[in-house]
């Protein structure tokens, strides 16, 4: 089991007289466990609360849950969901989400191939993205 606690504080600066001091915290709790002798899962839960996000008047809250799974040390599968609540100053609050599913294979010697799908809803706009990545890492 692992955890992380974080605090964020950003001064409002001098450029914008309407800017507010941004501050907030994050709490993460995770647990890595073997489902079978071939499948390992890293489960994560995170809560973030930021007041005056981006030094603006709105407050953002996020809740994220994810599962990163590794099969036979080469295959990976990730499932993640984030829900965001925005307290909009002087207007209606909004709720957004991000859902992502991806998988890939590690060929060894620094080469991986991955594919993923992401669905987001932000400010009432829904979008879907499918992507692929082939990566090779060079040691030097």
Describe this structure in words.
This protein has 140 residues and is mainly β. It has one domain (2-103). Helix content is 0%, strand content 71%. The chain contains no helices and eight strands. It has strands at residues 2-10, 22-34, 39-51, 59-71, 75-87, 94-108, 111-122, 125-136. It has an eight-stranded antiparallel beta sheet, with no helix packed on it. A hairpin with a 3-residue loop joins strand 4 (59-71) and strand 5 (75-87). The two termini are 34 Å apart. The model has no long low-confidence stretch (mean pLDDT 90).
Output the helix-strand order: EEEEEEEE
- What is the count of DSSP helices, taking H or I runs of 4+ residues? 0
Give the total of beta strands. Answer: 8
Structural class: mainly beta
**Taking Cα atoms only, what radius of gyration do you get, to the nearest Å?**
19 Å
Number of domains: 1
Low-confidence stretches: none
Strand content: over 45%
Strand order of the largest sheet: 1-2-3-4-5-6-7-8
Shape summary: elongated
**Whole-Å distance between the termini?**
34 Å
Largest sheet: 8 strands, antiparallel
- Quick check: average pLDDT? 90
The helix content, as a percent range, equals under 10%
